[in-house]
Amino acid sequence: MHGTQVHDTQQPVISVRNLWKVFGPKAARVPGSAELGALSRRELMDRTGCTAAVRDIDFDVAPGEVFVVMGLSGSGKSTLVRCLTRLVEPTAGEVIFEGEDILACDPKRLRDLRRHKFAMVFQHFGLLPHRCVVDNVAYGLEIRGVAKAERTKRAKEVIELVGLGGYEMSYPDQLSGGMQQRVGLARALAVDPDVLLFDEPFSALDPLIRRDMQSEVIRLHREVGKTMVFITHDLSEALKLGDRILIMRDGALVQIGTGDELVAAPADDYVRDFVRDVPRSHVLTLKWIMRPPRDDDPLDGPELGPDVVVREATRSVLAAEKPVKVVRDGELLGIVGDEEILSVIAGGSDS
Amino acid sequence: MAATSSSPVSRTLPRVHIVVRDRGRIVLGILAVWLLLWVFLRGMHTLALGGAQLTSVHHWFNNLNDVIGANRNSNPVFLYFFNYIRLFVDEFVIFVQSVIAQPSFGRPLPLIGWLGVVALVGFVSYAVANIRVAVLATAGFFVLGLQGLWRESMDTLALTLAAVIISLVIGIPLGIWAGLSDRFARLITPVLDFMQIMPSFVYLAPLTLFFLIGPASATIATLIYAAPPVIRLTAHGIRSAPHDTVEAGESLGSTRTQMLTKVLLPAAKRTIVLGVNQTIMAALAMVTIAALIDAPGLGKTVIKALQTLDVGTAFNAGLAIVVMAIVLDRVTTAAADRGRRRPNRIVLLAGAAATVFAIWLSYTYLWAAEFDARLDIGSTIVLWAGEATDWVQSTLAPVTNGIKDAFTWVLIDPLQALLADSPWWLVAVAIVAISVVIGSVRAAIVSAVCLGLLVATGLWSDGMTTLASTLVATVFTMVIGVVVGVWMGRSQRADRVIRPVLDAAQTMPAFVYLVPFLALFAASRFTAIAAAVVYAAPVAVKIVADGIRGVSATTVEAAVASGSSTWQTITKVQLPMSVRALTLATNQGLIYVLSMVVVGGLVGAGALGYDVVAGFSQGQLYGKGLAAGIAIVLLGVMLDRLTQAAANRTQRGGSR
Ligand SMILES: Nc1ncnc2c1ncn2[C@@H]1O[C@H](COP(=O)(O)OP(=O)(O)OP(=O)(O)O)[C@@H](O)[C@H]1O
Ligand SMILES: [Mg+2]
């Protein structure tokens, strides 16, 4: 498994260990059994009538990180993210949130966590059709028992933040899809959660609006700095938003890594297929294309960091007379010349 | 292109035809044998029973009634259960009556007089719906006063309100429970189905056994009939709350109560209000019928008039029922459709003040309490309607009698002769055999059991007479259903025009339909059948129209493209493909017709309907009336099961 684990110094916000969710009769026997656990989706269905939507998944989410979960339709993304707050009850495994085992919580504690620590944005918005925008946004505060004046004030702030000022008294069916999702976003932000969960929030929107909303999330992340778990089946969205990306297939984890890691070093053909159409120069960084310095390399060329994206380095590399040095903390890591750059831009083979 | 796309049509349709046609041949064969035997066996073993004749079963029921009557105040079940329910319901009804309908609290008049009620109705309509229906409601209630039927109308309204309030208090929580729990939903659905297939009429007799003749029985019968819609629709509304919304509510940490009150109920509100609408309409219909067991109000006026064939009075009171039905229906429908518009708060406050003032006036001053008799237009309506009837009956007599006699002679008499004059065992064997052929073995067993029990009620002969009327009426209902239904199914325009009329017709209590037919055709079996057809046709038409519309547009297009004429498209594609809708329409048509043929006992339909009615009014016929009620249930169950089985069978046949 190719996984970059979070820095040891940082306590993860969420750690998931050996998480299973099996739908179907007598689901609990599947995670325990090595034999059943190894079956393919089809075989498992034929043998037991069960579907393993999440199989034995491990990952950590660091504070402030945007963690993206990606996979094809039916790969278990929604189920996985719902297991985190037990909207779907996991069959086996552990979900640790800030050191507390969520699966061991009693209903009251769970409700408290949902009220204060997590908030979720849904694919089809899930707004309350009988309430206007303010009351939708204030819902989370209302059920916590926040007084009316206070929650309305807070709701208005958040509505302003997501750029919906002026629509406070509108009803969901009077808003466009993009605006409705802004309401969904505002509702999640209003409760000031530690973690925001997004389940394909922009899939129902058209491409232009989707791009707006993605920028909106990036902006909000910069402004409020929340930890986010973001589900999508769109790779460009994943690359745009995600600090790290988890790729799922048939409920199992295939690879975890940063965008450039997935593009540069796909774990298998499934991932390779996923990243095939990505413009590599937009994702790869110099560290993936540099070569070791040779003795005859002139070492007086310009310097660049290893995490500079190829596209951004192109101009300076091609303009420079000498090959560019890739340097971190004064240490020479490698060399990038015209040849390396051009092979990426021309869509050359894997490095 | 046309040939290939129409080939699936021509390949599957003939097979359905053959299956249907084969079964049709066997049924014809059975009928032929039956006819042949009838020629020889006519008049034997017919189990006929004279009007005042009783069997031991009827005596036994009479006894049961006496025994229960004697022990009503000593038997613990009655003492601690039924009597309490009766007392509670009675008290409640009397309380509501004393507010708007009956003299009370030592006053010669109810607490709130006409002005107060009219103002209150207008205000409530505005508060829950909008100004338009408020005006309509106010005007409608004013008309009730003009008709000279204020007190009767208020009695009907009081009884309806009492029954509706109890229905909602019981029904909405049950509906919520059924919406939240699959277990409970599975448990209650068959019960609701059963409550609704019973002709409303037949609850009455057994209920009087436990709750005596009077308001308690009337209210409880109404409750049984009126509660199912609100239970069903509440459950449905809760179940159809959008999944994402429910999940969002959950993800924010709502408790179960918060979930219910802030997410599910608001999302289901419109559906629940529609359920309330249906409950109110059902309650009104039932309250008028409950006049048969002495429920006060407009229904009683209609029944008395029908029994003396006083069309004028029946018309006036029937009109009042229609007015009340329209007002109640419009107000509740508008309340459901109101959406988010809230009434203006200032107008609301002013209206409340004015209403309170009007109530105070009507409490204090006689002119505002009792409708001024000088404004009465009711007697004019009675007079005119009576004269119009006389005129119609004398001038149109050749026409109407011609129609009536032709139908009676060609259809009703022969069928009745076949059913009622055959030996009972021959009829039973024939019906069971037909059940096997067009239904299923299960349906045949149900038929056999029902027929056996029908013999046991001692009312076989009356049962067969009623069955004959029911079948004739159902045939006509289906003819209308298919003709109008196909028209509506094929033409958007026709649908738009006709559907509201059907909707309106369906909200009318059954009684109302008797009046015009009584005017046209005087008291006869034909009159009852004609009224039943008109009562049942809207349901059948709607189901057929929906079935026709449900036939896939591509199939129809393919048929047209391959050169079918309109007639061929209808008979070879649209009707065969909506065969399930047709059987369903027949099923519903039968149930409606059956409940109406019984009400027709009041206008000369005789047989079971008459037995039931007579049982309520004459002590020594009580047992027979009760047995007749049971016989109607038996016929209903048999016909329902049989048509259901036929529907399932055609569906399987069609999809094969
Ligand atoms: N309540 C359920 N009962 C049974 N099976 C379920 C249930 N929910 C999900 N599944 C199954 O689990 C698998 C994963 O579903 P999930 O909704 O998590 O996929 P997804 O990755 O979110 O797909 P999509 O991109 O289409 O939303 C699917 O095979 C689905 O059929
Ligand atoms: Mg999903």
TrEMBL record, chain A:
CDD domains: ABC_Pro_Gly_Betaine (cd03294). Pfam families: ABC_tran (PF00005). GO terms for molecular function: ATP binding. Residues 39-275 form the ABC transporter domain. Keywords: ATP-binding, Nucleotide-binding, Transport. InterPro entries: AAA+_ATPase (IPR003593), ABC_osmolyte_uptake_ATP-bind (IPR051921), ABC_transporter-like_ATP-bd (IPR003439), ABC_transporter-like_CS (IPR017871), Gly-betaine_transp_ATP-bd (IPR005892), P-loop_NTPase (IPR027417). The keyword ATP-binding applies. The keyword Ion transport does not apply. Belongs to the ABC transporter superfamily. This is Glycine betaine transport ATP-binding protein OpuAA. It comes from Kibdelosporangium persicum.
From TrEMBL, chain B:
Residues 153-332, 463-643 form the ABC transmembrane type-1 domain. This is Binding-protein-dependent transport system inner membrane component. It is a multi-pass membrane protein. It comes from Kibdelosporangium persicum. Belongs to the binding-protein-dependent transport system permease family. CDD domains: TM_PBP2 (cd06261). InterPro entries: MetI-like, MetI-like_sf. SUPFAM superfamilies: MetI-like. The lineage of its organism: Bacteria, Bacillati, Actinomycetota, Actinomycetes, Pseudonocardiales. Its main location: membrane.
